[in-house]
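Preliminary data (for renewal application), S-adenosylmethionine complex.
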Amino acid sequence: MLDRPLLESILAAHGAALADDAFARLDRFAERLVETNRQFNLTAVTDPAGVTVKHFADSLVLFGLYDFPAGARVLDVGTGAGFPGLALKLYRPDLQLTFLDGTRKKLDFIAGVLADEGLAGETVHLRAEEAGRQPAFRETFDVVTARAVADMAKLAEFTLPFVRVGGAFLAMKSESAAEEVRRAQRALTLLGGRAARDTVYRLTPDVPRRLIVVRKISQTPTKYPRASAQIAKKPL
Ligand code: SAM
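Predicted structure:
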C-alpha cells in the first residue's frame, strides 16, 4: 500500500531512517486504514502516494524535527484515525502512546491495530478540555502532538494542560498558519508555554508544512482548560 521509496526519501531528507520491521507495521496500518475506510470515514486521502506523503511522511518527519526521549510519554490529541500518534508508535514502539479523541469509533480502530501488532497503548474517549482537568492526565506527558484539530489559540488550551513542565507540545500546521500562530502568543504565555521553534519545510515540492514546538516553561493555571463553550466563544 505505502510507497516505500517515496516514504524513505522524504524521511531521509529529514534525517530519519526507515527499518524493515517498522515499515512492515506501518504498511499493515495503511492497508487497514483504506480497507476500514470503506465502512466508515477515516480519511479523505486513499491513493498510495497521497497516503504515503500526507499521512505517513507528515507524521514521521517529526522524528527528524524533534528528539523524542527513549520511552517518552506521548499524547496525541484529536488523533482521529491515528495521525500522527499511531504512526509514531508503529515506528518507535518504545514510546508510551496515549490516543485521545472525542469519537469512539476512531479509537476502536486504533485499538484494533495496536492489538494486532501486539503493542500497548491507551485510548481515551474524552474531549481534550475534559481530560485536561483530570489529575490522571494533567501535566503528565513529555510530548503532546496535534494535527488538524483546531486553531492555534484553542489548540493551546486543549493541549498545554497535559504537558509536564520541561516537556513540549508539537503543533503540526499548514505552512499558511503563521498569522494564526502569531495571534496565539498570548494564549501560549497564559497557559505556561513558549513557542521555541517555528519551522517551515516541504514533504514534497508541493506539500509545504509547518511545525511549531512549544516548550512548557511553567505550570498551567488551574482555571484552564475552560469549558468547551467558553473556549469556542472566547479563545485566549
Ligand atoms: N489528527 C488526525 C489527523 O490529522 O488525521 C485527525 C484530524 S480530524 C480533522 C480532527 C479530530 O479531532 C477528530 O477525530 C475529532 O473527533 C477530534 N477532536 C476535535 N476537537 C476535539 C476535542 N476538543 N477533544 C477531543 N478530540 C477532538
